[in-house]
Structure formats: C-alpha cells, structure tokens
Design goal:
The complex is a heteropentamer, with two copies of chain A, one copy of chain B and two copies of chain C. By secondary structure, chain A is mainly alpha-helical. Chain A contains ten helices and no strands. In chain A, helix 3 (about 45-80) packs antiparallel against helix 4 (about 80-95). The radius of gyration of chain A is 22 Å and the shape is globular. The relative contact order of chain A is 0.13. In chain B, the strands form two sheets. A five-stranded mixed β-sheet of chain B has the order 2-1-3-10-4, sandwiched between helices. A five-stranded mixed β-sheet of chain B has the order 7-6-8-5-9, sandwiched between helices. In chain B, helix 2 (about 40-45) packs across helix 11 and helix 10 (about 225-245) packs across helix 11 (about 245-255). Chain B has 13 helices and ten strands. In chain B, about 40% of the residues lie in helices and about 15% in strands. Chain B is an alpha/beta fold. The longest helix of chain B is centred in the last third of the chain and has 20 residues, at about 225-245. In chain B, helix 6 links the parallel strand 6 and strand 7. Chain C is of the alpha/beta class. Chain C is about 35% helix and about 20% strand. In chain C, the strands form two sheets. Chain C has a six-stranded mixed β-sheet, with helices on both faces. In chain C, a hairpin with a 2-residue loop joins strand 4 and strand 5. The termini of chain C are far apart. Classes of the chains: A mainly alpha, B alpha/beta, C alpha/beta. Chains in contact: A-B, A-C, A-D, B-D, C-E, D-E. Chains A and D meet through helix 1, helix 4, helix 5, helix 6 and helix 8 of A and helix 1, helix 4, helix 5, helix 6 and helix 8 of D. The complex binds adenosine-5'-triphosphate (2 copies), ligand VIB and magnesium ion (2 copies). One magnesium ion binds near residues 42, 43, 79 and 155 of chain C.
C-alpha cells in the first residue's frame, strides 16, 4: 500500500484539478466532473453492469484469446522455419500498418451485426503486436547460449523449449499488457460501427445526447476492468520473472 | 488553436473594419450537403453573406449530433439540427442552445423499407431490425408508432448505423431505417433501382415539426445577436434566389459538391428541390419562421411519451431574430 | 577419434586467416591439452569441433564421420559460464540430461552426486546470480560432465578456482576419465595443469595463420601423482613448454 | 531483393486469392478486388494525393513528433527520479487502459474541427506505448554494468548517457515502429470523428456510398506510406544496433 | 589509506553471515593480494569497498573518510569483463576517462599507449564480440588502469591469460605501480602471482563467517625479479600459503 502512495496522491491531485476545471466550465457536455461521472455511473449501474459490460468483456476476451493463440502460433512458426519467417515477417509488419479501423465497416457487411464483426476488429488490433513482440523475444536469445545448447545436441524443439521460451517470456508479458488496452480500444471502435449493446456503444449513445457524464461512465468502467487485468498480469509476471537484469 | 472555454469572446467582439474584412461565420450542417442546403451555397456564390460582412464556413458533421454540440460548445456559430432532438438535449442535458429559425415547416423524416420486406406501415415494424442514425428520438418515434397501432415495441432491434442509412438498408443489414428524408433518400433509392415503401411517423401519432432548425449558442445570441441576424438576413435573401431560380441554385450546389465524397445526382436533387420548396416556405409562414406553439406541442408530446422528465416550457428555446 | 584434415579457417571480420591446412588427430579415450598465447585461436578450434564455425576448407571427422552428419558427439564447456539465469544451479546442471531424455530420478541422482563432488550441494537451489565466479565455473563444469557425450571439450575449466579447489577438481577429473574413458580436450593457461592431466600437449605457436600444432608427449603414466611433477624431467618439460609459448601478440 | 522473394511470393499468392474470391463474390461493396482498388486509386489520385494524403500525414507526423518528445521526456524523468517513477508509472500504465477512442468525440467539442482534436487522438494512442517501452528499456540495463560505472564515480547523468541510453536504443526503435501504425490508426479514428479531409475520412465516405474499392484505395495508400516509414526506420536500426544478441 | 573497522556483512539470500567484525587496513601506495578458496568472499570485500554492498555493521574508511561521503576513490576491475557491446575496444577503454572529463586528445594518447602495452593496438576498432576471452580481460584491465582513481581493485585480473602474457602483464603492472604508486588490491588464485606482486598477502580462511584475514609479509624488495621466486624461503612461503588455504567448500 505504502509504495503506491505517490501514485495515489498524483491521481488525487489530477482528479481534483479535473473537478476544479469541470466546475469552472460548468458544462457537463463539454467536460463532466469526476463526481458527476461517479453519480452517473451509480445511476446507470444496472444497464451498465448487466448488459453493456458483459457484452464488451465478451468481445475483448474472445478477441484477446484468439489473438494470443494466433499470435503465438505465428511467432512460433516464424521462429521454426526461416523460410516462413522470411515470407511472413515483412507481411506481418506491413499488415500492421493497415489502418484496420478504416476498413472495419466492411466487416459488418461480412458478418452482419453479430459479435464476430467486433471480435475481428479486436483481433486485428491486437494480433500483430503480440506476434511481433513475441517473435522479437524469440530472436533476442543470447547467441552464446544457443550455441551451447546446440553443442549438447539439442534439437530445435529443445532450443525452443529450454532457451527461447524463457527468454521470450518477458516479451510475452509485455505483449499481453500492451494488447489488453488495445483490445479495449478495438472493441470500442467495433461497437461504434454498429452495436446494440456494449460500453463503447453506450458511450457513443450518451454522446449523441450530449450527456458528458454518461459518456465517461462506461469509459471509467472499462478502464477499471482493464487496469485490474493488467495488474493481475503484472503480479503473475513479477512472480515468474525474477532474472530480468541478469540475462 | 486554443482550448475553447471562453467561447463568446472570439466570435462576438471582433471589430468591423469596413466592408473588406469579413468575419468568419461557421455553420455545421445536419448531414452531407444536399438540395436543402442549396441556398447556403447560393448565398456564398452570390456574395450575400459577404454583403453582410460574413465569410460563411460550411462544415459537414462528423457525428450525427454535431449540429447541436458544436454551437453549444462555442465551436460553431450555428448548427442545423432536428427539432425534437434539440428539445430533448437542450432540456435534459442543460445544453445552452436556442433556435433562431426553422428550415422547413413540416416533417420530412420517413421510415423506409425495401418493398420485398413487406413493411408498409407501423404495424409491420414489430420485431424488425431498424437502422437509425443514433439520435435517440428515432427509437422513441418507432416505439410510439408501434404503440399507436396497438403493438408494443418490445422486440424491435435498434441498430445505430450512423450516416450509413442507405447502405444499411440496401445491403440488407437492417429491415427498415428511420431518419431518411423524404426529399433525398426516397428518390435516391428509387433512382438506384430499389423498390421501396416509405411512410411518415406523423401518420402514426408523432406530431408535425419543423424538421430542421438553426441552433445557436444561448450566449452568442444574447451577447451578439446582430451577427446572427446578419447571417439570417443573408439566408433569406439567398433563399429568395433559390426559390426564384431553383435550377441555377441547384447548379451552384452541384458545382460545389464534393463529388469524390458525396456525389449528388442531378435528377435526384431536382426532385428533392421540388419537394422542398413548398415546405421551406408556405403561404402562412415565410422562410425561417417558427411558432413557439409548434415547439410546445412537440415538447408536450415528448413529455407524454415519458422521454422528457419534466413538463417543459420551451419559450426560452425559441428566439425569432428576423421576420 | 577426432581428426582435422587440412582445415583452414578465417573469421570474416579478420583480414588474416586463423589457421591454414591444419591437421591433427586425437584418439578415443585420450586426454589432450591445448595451450597457446591469448588470442591465438584455441577457443576457435573448439568452436570448429562443435560445428559452431564452419571450416573454409578441409574436413573435421569424428570416428571417421564428418561432424555435419552426426549429433551429440561432444560436450562443450565454454570460457564463459553461460548458466541460464532462470534456472537454479540444480536445474542448470540437469540441462544436458534433460536434452538426452534421462529419467527424472536418474537426473536427480546424478545431479546430487556431481554437485557434491564440485562442492556446490548446498547451492543446488540457488540461482546463478547468487554464486561467486568460481562457483559458477564449477557449476558449468558439472553441467558439462553430465552431458552424455563421449568427447569433452573444456575451455579453461578451472581458471577461476583457487589452487586447492583447482587441484581437487583436476584430480577428480582424472578419476572420472580413468573411470569412463572419455576423450577429453582441454584448453588451459596453466602449464602445470596441462602436464599433470594430459597425455599429450598441443602447443599453438605464434605465426598467423598457424599451420600446425606442436605435439609433446608427457612421459608419465596414469594414475599420476602430484609428486611426479617435481621430477627433474617434468620440471624441465615445463620450462621448455613455457619457452615454446611464443606469443602472437606483440607486447 | 533476393531475400525478399518468399515474402513477395506470399503477398502475390494472397493477392491472387483475394482477387479470386472478390471476383467470385462479384460485389465490390462487400469485397472489392485488388485490381479494382488499383483502378480506383488511379482514378482518385488527384484528390487523394493533393488533399487527403497530406492532411493525414500532417496529423500523424505532428502527433508522432509530440508523442516521441513527450514519451521520451517522461521516460527520462521517471528514470531520473524514483519518486516520479513511483508516482507516474502506475498512472501511465493505468491511463493506457482508457479507451481514448470512446471519449474522442469530446475532443471536437474542445478543439473544434481544427487539426488539434485529431492530433490529440493520435498522441493519446502513441504516447503511452512510447513512454513505457523506452522506460522499460532504461530499466533493463544490466545490473553489473551499472555497478561498474558507479565504481568509476559516474554521475547519474553519466550512467544515463553511457549505459542506459545505448541499452534502451533497441527499445526506442521498437517503440517507434510500434507507434507508427498506431498513429495511423489514431489518425484514421480521429478523422472518423470529424474531419473534412484526410484518408480516414475519405474512406469512411466511400463506405457510405458502398464504393468498396474507394474504401480500400486510401487504406492502401496509408499503409504503403506507413510501410515505407517503418522500412526506413528498420534500416536505420540495423545500421545503429549491431550488438543485439551480445548484451 | 583503506580501513575496515569491525565490518559485518551477510547477503540477504544467505543464512550464514559472510564476515563478522572484520578489521584490516591497507596503506596508501601498498600493493596487497587477497587469496582464499572459491566462494569464500573475496569479491564481496571488493563490492563492499566499492559501496556496491552496504555493511550491516562497522565502517569502511578511505583516507579516514567514510566511503559514503566520497566519490571516485577506487577503480574496480570485476571478475567478468563487462565490456560494453556497443563500444569498440578503444571506446570501452576510454570510458573512465570520459567520465573523468579528460580531454579527447589526451584520451586518444593514453588509450593508444595502454592498448599497445596490453597488446591490443590492432584491435582498437574491433568490438568485444570479436575478441578472445583473454583479450577481453586485457581490455578490461586497460580500462581499469585508465580510470584516474588512486586505488585499484583487481578481481582476478589475469585469470584468462596464458603464462607468458600473464607474466608480462604482471611485470607491467609492477612498473606502473612503481611509477604512479597507486594503492592496489588484487584477488588471485595464483599464489605465485600473489607473492611476486604483493608486499603483503591477505588470506581468507575457511570459517564462515570469517572474522579476520591472516596477513603475510613477502620478504622481497621492489623492484623484484622473477628469479627471486626460486629462492628457498620464497618457495617455502609459497608452500605454506597453499597449506593455509583451507577450503570453506567441502569437496
Ligand atoms: N549477489 C549475491 N547474492 C547472494 N549471495 C551472493 C552474491 N554474491 C555472492 N554470494 C555468495 O557469497 C559467497 C562469496 O562470494 P564471492 O563472490 O565473494 O566469492 P569469491 O571469494 O570472490 O569467490 P571466487 O573466487 O569463486 O570468485 C558465495 O558463497 C556466494 O554464494
Ligand atoms: N566471433 C568472432 N568474430 C571475429 N573474430 C573473432 C571471434 N572470436 C574470436 N575472434 C578472433 O580470433 C582470434 C582467436 O580467438 P580465440 O577466441 O580462438 O582465442 P583463444 O586462443 O581462445 O584466446 P584466449 O586464451 O584469450 O581465450 C582473436 O584474435 C579474436 O580477435
Ligand atoms: C438528406 C438527409 N438524410 C438523412 C438525414 C438524417 N436525419 C433526418 S431526420 C433524422 C432523425 C432525427 O431524429 C435524421 C437522423 C438528414 N438530415 N438529411
Ligand atoms: Mg579462448
Ligand atoms: Mg570472486
């Protein structure tokens, strides 16, 4: 607890500043005050928690899961076969530069307003960073250690399991921590394109009504959830990786 | 560019240095430019705004509600928005906005469905997927239409399709859409070869309204009404030209259209113009004229429907600056 | 049997070749030392044997088969310890056995035994960062011994050890060798160590690229005794070896 | 050239597949064919290249620049002062979880239709990843090397310049390469929210007209530009960092 | 002058303390060797002197001032080379001078001179990965010498060098010492090296935690000659030192 003091203090100061400015402007549709947002969050708790939060969580969870599996598979495949790497790596990097959000409306034409069009946006936002980060992790194994394993007659699989996997583990954690916020952003974008529920949709709807506090309420909810997830993952990471500065 | 909290100071107090120096006047449209906006382009082309010392800057909306939010936030001098939505937002969210003129004297909003879908009236909407632009009133209008024909709105699905009303319909993503203009979408869809049915919400209990109104920030109207008056005067003059010579006016619009972005079809816009001219000015009401009474009727209806939380007197929302 | 046949090699980064048409051979079960000035190419020979560098010319054969075609023929102890920071000492030592699919119990048994012998039993559960330099070297040595290969390549295995520990390790290595009769090549800077352990000592002399290694037989039988080192002929041999070490570096 | 063969081949195969499927569906508004996109790109070259491309490039460039400067400053500040780190790091990580896109519509109310509302979205998308990645780079300096410098009587500044900076350099490059696509996505999102020009805006408009090829044309343009930038940066990186596997 | 006053220290990871109430002192300009079994705590003493670890108890003083209050009093050559991979050998050697704000020309001059002396002149522009183990060690040694500090702490500086190179480096170190009269503490496993270089030899004996270090004076004057090592009393001293090295590790 104690070590989080400075951070808590900073957040408090920022919130107070925000509250001050918001009260100064006194126009919730331009800048709602934190207290206003909390009040609104409380008022809207039923639809938010029973309908919209589950909907968005479903999209992000599904999207993340598929992204992680796909991303890992791809990273492993590229690490496995240099031909695959040569073929895929530039394509992946390149594909990352495609502003998926711009073509996202097409997904609705492909999948309709089902969850899949939204999951696809999420996957496209998170899949590439995961694949590339993890692959870079595999690539950053220490040459000398790889050579050593090689002299022990290690198979490719052995090198992978005994050396590359542990080396890439910190990268994997970074990738996940990076992907979580991205998946939330992806879901929010997707819900903009057309949705009947979800926190992104809800937020947008509130925007159309110029209900500033209502815009922020689901956003606050979303980021609290994302924060908690990131926090849990950081805990796991700290437990797992004790040798970061020693490699 | 600054962070605009002290909104009125930039707009309101610019000193006039003779005729040469034009004052910027920004307007946010309700939609992409179409026949209903011809008079604005005509006015620019003919220099009517310049005569009033204004340099009219036309912005298209990027969100459906920009027509109300931008003038409210002081980021535009005036916005075009829908009357019922304006009442709702202005009262429920305390958005400081007033209406300074009505663009049409009656509703243009229609529900459109493909003929194949078999939807021809409110009774057929039950359980359908309905696309709308995200304005919350559209939902209420559908519900009230259903209740008007003795149905409940329980299982209607509402899908916010933003600006993509036509495409959502034609690609079969939704069964019907609300928020189409009878003057534009209807002929446009027909020209594109789609057989459609359409009907007015007003046929099913929704009160008549001035479809689009000019909204300005309350502050701006109080502090510098003269600037808006100049704008409105120029609009009236421009509309005069549009009425006199619709073809020329249309041509100016077509010349100014952003073809790559939102191409207009001449035939469609001609039809649109024919529909529009009789409702933008009627024998009873000149262009821009608005009656508080019409506003109040709509507000009362909104209250009856349970959309407005309080019975509201809308008199302060309506300010007639010109006649 | 290990045989170099006319091996030439040059690091791409260097202008001068490292070795040219080098040929030599080590019999199965031999214990051979390689000595030479710093930077003369000793470690490079090991890298070649391990297949970590490819000769520009010539062939390297183990039991008459080119090394490219075989696997698992050698266990290498590099100059750096290269312990994996995410594995405990125990787990580090297990590594080659894991790769050789030795059963877990067997791994445990052997690890315990070897750790006891290198004096690290109480450090089994610690991580490399908690060990002193010499302890890490011993852990790396233990790891090498437990790889099942028939040929051991040891690059300065005892350089970071104090005199006594070193002597014990040497004696222990000799025991192991007598017991299992593996082929052992090792690099050392300690001429006494070379003489005490090796049957033959290869000396790399200064010319660059070098084309041959002088070979000197140590006139001692196994098992050897530390006292043997005090024999006049051995002391003389030692002096002559030191004399033969011509540096390739110009100080 | 030769080493890019596999990748070129893969791209070719993918394109051909795409073309085949597109021709099979034969509905450009659902899936335009690559050739159709190229044709449209050519037809639209004048507005795309003279109006929309410069607009979007302006946003991304400005956004990236500010993000890089801010992100670096923040990373340095946190590295400098442990108190600052304690206060800021959790806040930054947390703030990354805010789905900025959801509140982005508000920015238009703050800045109007000016470029700044769009730049802000871009900054919010790219700023955090840069700050965090670079800071993690600073943190991953090898403990023993830091200790060595310390024994030389190195000041904090020296440790920073001589050790942390070089150690973090690869992270910096990764951060930039990650930020470029994100900035493009950010700009595209921002242009959705409100713009009169720009490739994202253009693409969106084309969607409204069901002009599938027109949707893709600016997307293709954008990603080509982003790809080129990433490529240039990779070149610089390869020239600069020759010791990745040796640390 | 360096003085330990009742210093106790324990690594948090260990149960047993490393040292307890250890006191000793080294005069300015002295050349002192520390020997001891592997893992007995030699490197730890250097870490304490450098302030990299804080004593749990007691004080460490340099010139009567507690080390926390002063800077730049020592130059440390760690057991690992720790060359920076992104710097050429030349630049690596320059590092301490850069930190001491030595002018660039002066840096160039000194670097060239010292690199010549350690036999790495032609490798000046190369990067650490292109060097052999012994070469890296010499580069690290050169780097340490060029730091301006008055006290040098050398942790096994010559362990990876062949006999001849090592002897030359030793002689050169002695010259440097005679010339600049810096205080030098070094750790070595080579008892001969300790005797040849040092005026006094500290021996860490096996008990854990250790409370004192035995100190042995080497009965030789400077400048010394290699031949001196063959004197009977020195040979005897050497034997007795080896005898004194009781391992703390149980083999
Ligand atoms: N960072 C550390 N954390 C915990 N324990 C350590 C650490 N460094 C060393 N030790 C422990 O302290 C003891 C002494 O280590 P030290 O490095 O001082 O030995 P040393 O005398 O230098 O040995 P060597 O000659 O092998 O280098 C060892 O038993 C080791 O396990
Ligand atoms: N990876 C490499 N790339 C380029 N040159 C190298 C590489 N490794 C070693 N060298 C060069 O090859 C020469 C011999 O190196 P090697 O490591 O074989 O020496 P060594 O005999 O083992 O020396 P030492 O006893 O100091 O370890 C050195 O001059 C070195 O500069
Ligand atoms: C040509 C044209 N087409 C559609 C609309 C959008 N629209 C018309 S009515 C309505 C519902 C208001 O609650 C909406 C969204 C427009 N403005 N202009
Ligand atoms: Mg070597
Ligand atoms: Mg040590």
């Amino acid at each position: 607890m104690k070590k989080n003091m400075p951070s808590a203090l900073l957040v408090l100061i920022l919130l107070m500043l925000w509250q001050g400015v918001a009260m100064g402007i006194d126009a919730a549709y331009i800048l709602p005050s934190p207290t206003g947002i909390l009040v609104r969050l409380w008022e809207l708790r039923v639809p938010l928690f029973t309908v919209h939060l589950p909907a968005t969580m479903g999209i992000t969870a599904l999207g993340l899961l598929i992204s992680v599996v796909l991303g890992l598979l791809l990273a492993i495949a590229m690490d496995w076969n240099p031909k695959l790497e040569k073929a895929l790596y530039p394509v992946i990097v390149a594909s990352q530069t495609i502003p998926t959000t711009a073509i996202a409306p097409l997904f609705i034409l492909w999948f309709g307003y089902s969850i899949w069009s939204k999951v696809l946006v999420t996957i496209l936002m998170t899949f590439f960073p995961i694949a590339i980060t993890v692959f870079d992790g595999f690539k950053s194994t220490k040459r000398e250690m790889e050579e050593l394993l090689f002299t022990y007659g290690a198979s490719k699989k052995d090198v992978f399991l005994k050396l590359k996997l542990p080396t890439a583990l910190p990268h994997f954690f970074s990738a996940i921590k990076m992907a979580i916020p991205l998946s939330v952003i992806g879901a929010a974008i997707a819900e903009w394109l057309g949705a009947q529920k979800g926190l992104g949709y809800f937020s947008k709807r509130m925007m159309t009504q110029l209900d500033g506090a209502g815009v922020f309420a689901p956003v606050v909810l979303l980021s609290v959830v994302a924060m908690l997830t990131v926090w849990v993952i950081t805990m796991i990471e700290n437990k797992t990786i004790t040798w970061r500065k020693e490699l | 560019a600054g962070c605009g909290t002290n909104k009125s100071s930039e707009d309101g107090s610019a000193p006039k240095e003779g005729e040469k120096k034009l004052e910027d006047f920004s307007i946010v449209l309700d939609w992409y430019p179409n026949a209903i906006h011809s008079f604005l382009y005509t006015g620019i082309e003919k220099g009517y705004f310049a005569e009033e010392g204004l340099n009219l800057v036309i912005n298209f909306p990027s969100n459906v509600n920009d027509g109300i939010s931008m003038p409210a936030a002081g980021k535009a001098d005036i916005g075009l928005y829908y009357l019922q939505d304006a009442i709702l937002t202005a009262t429920e969210e305390n958005v400081p906005i007033v209406s300074v003129g009505a663009l049409t004297q009656s509703s243009l909003n229609v529900v459109v469905a493909l003929k194949d879908s078999g939807i021809s009236g409110a009774k057929d909407l039950k359980g359908k997927k309905i696309g709308y632009s995200g304005t919350s009133l559209s939902e209420e209008q559908i519900k009230s239409m259903l209740e008007n024909v003795g149905l409940s709105a329980e299982d209607c699905q509402f899908i916010d399709v933003g600006f993509d009303l036509m495409t959502a319909l034609t690609t079969g993503q939704v069964d019907a859409t609300i928020g189409n203009m009878v003057n534009h979408e209807v002929p446009q869809l027909e020209e594109n070869g789609f057989a459609i049915n359409y009907f007015y919400p007003t046929e099913f209990g929704v009160p008549q309204a001035y479809e689009l109104v000019f909204l300005a920030g309350k502050d701006a109207v109080e502090k510098n009404p003269e600037k808006i008056q100049r704008f409105l005067r120029a609009c009236q003059k421009s509309f005069g030209d549009m009425k006199e010579n619709p073809d020329e006016s249309l041509q100016i619009l077509l010349d100014n259209q952003n073809a790559e972005n939102f191409p207009l079809s001449k035939t469609v816009e001609q039809k649109s113009m024919e529909t529009l001219l009789p409702v933008m000015e009627t024998p009873e009401a000149p262009f821009l004229h608005q009656e508080v009474d019409v506003w109040q009727k709509n507000a009362d209806w909104l209250y009856e429907r349970g959309i407005l939380s309080q019975k509201t007197d809308v008199t302060p929302l309506v300010v007639n600056l010109v006649d | 049997m290990l045989r170099f046949e006319g091996v030439s090699f040059r690091y791409p980064e260097d202008e001068l070749g490292m070795m040219e048409k080098l040929s030599f051979q080590v019999e199965n079960g031999e214990l051979v030392a390689i000595i030479g000035a710093s930077g003369c190419g000793k470690s490079t020979i090991f890298r070649l044997i391990n297949g970590l560098e490819k000769p520009d010319e010539g062939k390297i054969l183990v039991d008459e088969r080119p090394i490219e075609t075989i696997k698992n023929y050698s266990a290498f102890m590099p100059q750096k310890d290269l312990l994996f920071p995410w594995r405990s000492i125990e787990k580090n030592v297990c590594l080659p056995m894991e790769l050789a699919k030795v059963s877990v119990e067997e791994q445990g048994r052997r690890t315990e035994k070897v750790l006891a012998q290198v004096g690290l039993l109480e450090y089994a559960k610690k991580f490399p960062k908690d060990l002193s330099g010499g302890m890490k070297q011993r852990a790396a040595f233990a790891r090498t011994l437990l790889s099942g290969a028939d040929m051991l390549l040891l690059d300065e295995p005892f350089s970071a050890l104090d005199y006594l520990t070193r002597v014990e390790m040497q004696e222990w290595l000799l025991q192991q060798w007598v017991h299992y009769h593996k082929t052992i090549l090792f690099i050392t800077h300690d001429v006494e160590e070379a003489i005490f352990l090796a049957k033959r000592v290869y000396i790399i002399q200064d010319s660059r690229p070098f084309t041959e290694m002088e070979c000197i037989e140590v006139p001692l039988d196994y098992p050897r005794n530390r006292e043997d080192l005090k024999k006049a002929e051995i002391v003389e041999l030692k002096e002559s070896l030191i004399g033969k070490l011509r540096r390739s570096v110009s100080l």
